[in-house]
Amino acid sequence: MDTILPAELVDAARKVVEQNRAIGRRVAVAESCTGGLVAAALTEIPGSSDVFEVGFVTYSNAAKLGVLKISSDVLETFGAVSIAVAWSMAQAALKQSGADIAVAITGVAGPGGGSLKKPVGTVVFGRAEKGRDPSDVHADRKNFGDLGRGGIRLQAALCALELLLPDASAP
Known about the structure:
The chain has about 170 residues and is an alpha/beta fold.
């Protein structure tokens, strides 16, 4: 396959497409720090339209507020890189898309933007599934360390794809 994406990312996306196609499940993503990398990986796979519903790239806080309709109170209280915002992004992507499962990614890819509480390499994931109790939060925070901007984005995209697998344990 002729691609500019790393082979491990394409392989992970292929698994997501194949396994979700097998169970008739449609997926959506809401991306911030990965800037559409997850959507790009999914659409690299022929036949991904059987599975991939939509990708929201909401890089700025204004986009998170305007496109995904994240509560300004949640964003201001917890910050963009938080469990609350990742969970809200996943819920919004699920609701707005009609997909069966949605994963959200928000983080600090660097080289700047980090803090003591949220250093470069901090990435938060949220996962929402149709029919699940929205008050049952499925989100996780990971710190990949300072792998460089590309390395952090790649690791975040790989984690997000893993969360879209049917047998993935909730974060």
